[in-house]
Amino acid sequence: KEIINEKALDGFNITIPHKESILPYLDEVSSNAKHIGAVNTVLIQDNKWIGYNTDGIGFVKGLIEHYGSIQDRKILVLGAGGASKGIVSEMQKFTNHKITVANRTMSRFDNWQIDINAISLTDVQFVLHTFDIIINTTPVGMNTQHSEFIIPVEKICKNSLVCDIIYIP
Fold first, then answer.
1. Of 71, 41, 44, 72, which Cα lies nearest the Cα of 58?
2. Cys bridge to 128: 21, 22, 68, 155, which one at CB 3.0-4.6 A?
3. Does 169 fall in a domain?
4. What does the pLDDT read at residue 109?
5. 124, 53, 18, 46 alpha-carbon torsion, rounded to 10°
6. Spatial separation of the C-alpha atoms in residues 91 and 98, rounded to whole Å
7. Are residue 114 and residue 97 in the same domain, yes or no?
8. Mean pLDDT by 10 residues, the chain (169 residues)
9. What pLDDT was estimated at residue 53?
């Protein structure tokens, strides 16, 4: 914290794997980020670190602008980290369906405060064809350590929209 304060920054972004572990270091957390349990943006104001989560707002706004209504779409999110929580929380405001979230370890859902259908990544292959929108929030694609596909792409419906939120920092 001292190093960042010395640099006189106005704020900074947080990415995998620190979106949840940053929380104890913040002076304030927005109600949205508190509900989600993850922060991706820190604003420094009067030497106070204030955490926000803009993952969901940004992604969903772009999705609806370019894809149209998601109200009647069945949605699958791959991964259960901070970005996933933000996106799912925001998407729930715009869809009639309960969102399905798939993850390697089911225990990852233990601290979720968001109502979802949870499924393991190994079982998701059996239902992939039923989703209109599939969103990858896992680290797959971020670097050579995470380069393997986590789902059998041949089982995705040809009319499905597939999104990947990962970027290489």
1. 41
2. 155
3. no
4. 84
5. 180
6. 10
7. yes
8. 71 87 95 90 92 93 95 95 90 93 89 86 93 90 65 89 81
9. 92
Q: What is the pLDDT of residue 168?
A: 65
Cβ-Cβ contacts under 8 Å for 84 (sequence gap 6 or more): 77, 78, 101, 137
| Tally of domains within the chain | 2
Q: Which amino acid would we find at residue 110?
A: D
pLDDT at 75: 97
Question: Among this protein's residues, is 19 annotated catalytic?
Answer: yes
Note the residue count of the chain.
169
**pLDDT of amino acid 110:** 84
Q: Are 29 and 78 within one domain?
A: no
Residue with tokens 């949870």: 118
Q: Is residue 44 part of a domain?
A: yes
User: Looking at the structure, do residues 66 and 143 belong to the same domain, yes or no?
Assistant: yes
Catalytic pick among 7, 19, 61, 93: 19
The encoded tokens of residue 79 equal 């991964």
pLDDT at 94: 95
Range of the domain at 113: 55-164
DSSP string covering 22-59: TGGG-SEE-HHHHHHT--SEEEEETTEEEEE--HHHHH
> Quick check: 26 and 49 in contact, CB under 8 A?
yes
Give whole-number Cα distances, 45 to 28, 53, 85, in Å.
11, 17, 26
